[in-house]
Amino acid sequence: MLTCKQVSRALADDDYMKLPRFKRILLRIHVSMCKICGGCNKMVIWFYDGFRLYREREEALLERGSGLTPEQKNRMKEALHREMGG
Question: 21: domain range?
Answer without folding.
Answer: 4-83
